[in-house]
Design goal:
The structure is a single chain. The chain is α+β, with helices and mostly antiparallel strands. It has two domains: 156 residues, Ribosomal Protein S5, domain 2 (2-Layer Sandwich); 121 residues, GHMP kinase, C-terminal domain (Alpha-Beta Plaits), CATH 3.30.70.890. Helices cover 33% and strands 28% of the residues. The chain is built from nine helices and ten strands. Strand 8 and strand 9 form a beta hairpin. Helix 1 packs parallel to helix 2, helix 5 runs antiparallel to helix 6 and helix 7 packs across helix 8. The longest helix has 17 residues. The chain is globular and about 60 Å long.
């Protein structure tokens, strides 16, 4: 009788977008973007248990359990790809302890799905080439491929054309999620794409690498094209950014299509002071220490 493999635990870290430019519409219904993805110290805990079927349970009632969860789709796609070679149909019970806010521009669902793709083959005693795993990731969503790698990454195309690089952020990062959920589909419907980057225009990666030592450059050149429509529809999100800048942020921006806003502060004490008035409104806040790296 075959022994039951022990559970596998993993973390799915959230991301923020350091700048986000929407540069065009595609014929496949997606948009061309340019952004830098960067992980923060906020994560979901995921435990994979051997099982006869694929099941998912999440601790957040706002996140579906069962077949509606993206992790169910990730496990199913992975099993189908493995079946092409093995003919085996293993199962898994996926337990997700949610901490990453939902519909907040932090990639929580995508991070969870990527964690399953990266860790589940080991539970099943199998392996897949990295290219196959990345193809599965793209089939699940535009942000999922980023979470298949480590470090920060310049993302282009739908976000799946990735160039990973080391970005050491010497600031404390305060993240705040107000009680607003923003639909990504809605946000894209309100966007007017900007012209593509000129050859003489500094790219986001260069802006960030220079701006780490001169935050004024970030304020001048690092923009999120979703801020205008989201701020107009949800003034609460704008007020979070204004609060951070008023309370000492060196730079602040919305992440993704919202509703989370992050700010760079000199140190964690400064970030905590800026978080206090936001927490008094019962907004969710999280602080990532300087120089954090997964």
């Amino acid at each position: 009788m075959a022994s039951i493999p022990p559970p596998i635990s993993c973390r799915a870290y959230a991301k923020i977008n350091l700048g986000l430019r929407v540069t065009g519409e595609r014929t496949d219904g997606y948009h061309e973007i340019c952004t830098v993805f960067h992980r923060i110290e906020l994560f979901d805990d995921i435990v994979l248990h051997a099982s006869d079927a694929i099941t998912v349970h999440t601790t957040d009632p706002a996140v579906p359990s069962g077949e509606a969860n993206i992790c169910h789709a990730a496990a199913l796609m992975l099993r189908e790809r493995l079946d092409l070679k093995t003919g085996v149909r293993p199962g898994v019970h996926i337990e997700i302890t949610k901490r990453i806010p939902v519909s907040a521009g932090l990639g929580g669902g995508s991070a969870d799905a990527a964690a399953v793709l990266r860790s589940l083959p080991a539970l099943w005693g199998k392996s897949l080439p990295e290219d196959d795993l990345r193809a599965l990731a793209l089939g699940l969503g535009s942000d999922v491929p980023y979470f298949m790698g480590d470090d920060s990454a310049l993302g282009k195309g739908r976000g799946e054309i990735l160039e990973y690089f080391r970005l050491d952020v010497p600031f404390a990062i305060l993240l705040c999620t107000p009680p607003v959920q923003v639909s990504t589909q809605w946000a894209y419907s309100r966007i007017v794409p900007r012209p593509p980057e000129r050859l003489d225009q500094e790219d986001l990666r260069s802006v960030l690498l220079r701006g780490i030592s001169d935050p004024l450059l970030l304020c001048e050149h690092l923009v999120n094209d979703f801020e205008s429509p989201v701020f107009l529809e949800h003034p609460l999100v704008r007020s979070v950014k204004e609060s951070m800048m008023r309370d000492g942020a060196l730079f602040a921006s919305m992440s993704g299509s919202g509703s989370s806003v992050y700010g760079f502060f000199h140190d964690t004490d400064a970030a905590r002071r800026a978080a206090a008035p936001l927490e008094s409104l019962n907004y969710r806040t999280f602080i990532t220490p300087p120089h954090f790296r997964v």
